[in-house]
């Protein structure tokens, strides 16, 4: 393996060459300080005129921001540096000299930065956020593999909706109507009856005309489904999973959290059990705080934020009214008006990051729900057949990756938590 900034500690007091880009630079008389990045990290290169010679030292001082370079230098210990090392520059070979790089150290507006998202992701903060995203993804795979889950990939093109919404992207599939998937859940239920514990990870699409800081048009979901699993066990798995990815970020993304300036004190409290309140109690708490909300109404972002402020961990809100939840959710045996479901609300105003439920496993009841919700039995016949051939109690949930990245990284808007966000008025770049 070639030396990289992330592995620089393996080469202390050795002379190495790294491929990198010039993030920034400053000079002081006969010394130039080069802030270098190679995609794995950042390091300062110290170029001294007496060691480089007049000609190369002057050339180094004139290199443009984001120029690509091969830099040769001696790795020196430096406890003041974030990486713990600096590079004493011995030679600089310019691969491509960049002129007039658009994103300078000065302040830029959000729209300008979004127009230049292909370059903005190089900046230290954006780079750190997307690194945290990767840590969460890798930790998710580890968690599910360690807990006996099989990775299954549901289709992106579907003939029907998972949640009967009209906010779907329509397309033609030859002579048929098709839609971009809003969830892989229905297909994952089929997979769970074949493999018992399964999970998917992929893009989902919702054509909601929303401009809030929590919404994207295209976003990524992690969706586990579990056979022989009731609502209570599912909640316990969700607690363990969220704890696992939080601990992974705290352990594996320390440098990135520091770059962002994330206060990790709240994250360090994340461990099971999470507090749980029923929908009834949530309504009472909101009314006590002066919110104009009645039983039977769904909770919006301000409601979720208020509930979250009353706890120092993620909080489950359970047992929503059946009529405001999806058709496939199993009714509470003790009160048929309620669903065996839960939303997990993240602290610090980041809203719902998980939605889950126990699924209806009774053929006749699901058939009734099709009629109540005016769903086509022909389109959903395969889904109904899962209750006809070996039906079992089963549960599942979906975690929205971008909202989770926003919460764990302390990022205000989800548009910064995905490499190339798709927003209501943005399809470029």
Automatic annotation (TrEMBL):
GO terms for cellular component: cytoplasm. The keyword ATP-binding applies. It catalyses: tRNA(Asn) + L-asparagine + ATP = L-asparaginyl-tRNA(Asn) + AMP + diphosphate + H(+). This is Asparagine--tRNA ligase. Residues 130-429 form the Aminoacyl-transfer RNA synthetases class-II family profile domain. CDD domains: AsnRS_cyto_like_N (cd04323), AsxRS_core (cd00776). Belongs to the class-II aminoacyl-tRNA synthetase family. It is found in: Cytoplasm.
């Amino acid at each position: 393996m070639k030396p990289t900034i992330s592995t620089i500690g393996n080469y202390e007091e050795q002379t190495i060459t790294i491929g990198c880009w010039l993030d920034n630079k400053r000079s002081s008389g006969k010394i130039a300080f080069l802030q270098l990045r190679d995609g794995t990290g950042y390091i300062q290169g110290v170029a001294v005129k007496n060691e480089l010679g007049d000609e190369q030292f002057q050339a180094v001082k004139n290199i443009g921001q984001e120029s690509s370079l091969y830099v040769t230098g001696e790795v020196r210990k430096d406890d003041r540096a974030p990486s713990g090392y600096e590079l004493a520059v011995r030679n600089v070979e310019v691969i491509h000299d960049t002129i007039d790089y658009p994103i300078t150290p000065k302040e830029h507006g959000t729209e300008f930065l979004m127009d230049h998202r292909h370059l903005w992701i190089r900046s230290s903060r954006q780079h750190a956020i997307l690194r945290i995203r990767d840590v969460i993804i890798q930790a998710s795979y580890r968690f599910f593999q360690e807990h006996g889950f099989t990775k299954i990939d549901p289709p992106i093109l579907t003939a029907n909706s998972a949640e009967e919404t009209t906010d779907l992207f329509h397309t033609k599939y030859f002579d048929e109507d098709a839609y971009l998937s809003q969830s892989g859940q229905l297909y994952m239920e089929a997979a769970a009856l074949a493999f018992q514990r399964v999970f998917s990870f992929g893009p989902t699409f919702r054509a909601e005309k929303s401009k809030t800081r929590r919404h994207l048009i295209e976003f990524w979901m992690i969706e586990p489904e579990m056979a022989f699993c009731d609502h209570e066990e599912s909640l316990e798995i969700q607690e363990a999973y969220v704890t696992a990815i939080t601990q992974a970020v705290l352990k594996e993304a320390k440098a990135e959290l520091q770059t962002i300036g994330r206060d990790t004190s709240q994250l360090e409290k994340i461990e099971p059990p999470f507090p749980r309140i029923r929908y009834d109690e949530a309504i009472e708490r909101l009314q006590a705080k002066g919110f104009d909300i009645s039983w039977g109404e769904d909770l919006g972002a301000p409601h979720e934020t208020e509930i979250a402020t009353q706890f120092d961990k993620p909080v489950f809100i359970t047992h929503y009214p059946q009529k405001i939840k999806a058709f496939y959710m199993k009714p509470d045996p003790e009160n048929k008006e309620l669903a065996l479901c839960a939303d997990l609300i993240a602290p610090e105003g980041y809203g719902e990051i998980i939605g889950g439920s126990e699924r209806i496993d009774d053929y006749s009841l699901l058939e009734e729900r099709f009629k109540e919700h005016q769903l086509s039995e022909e389109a959903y016949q395969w889904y109904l057949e899962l209750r006809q051939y070996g039906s079992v109690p089963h549960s599942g949930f979906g975690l929205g990756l971008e909202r989770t990245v926003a919460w764990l990284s302390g990022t205000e808007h989800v548009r910064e938590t995905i490499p190339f966000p798709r927003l209501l008025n943005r399809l470029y770049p």
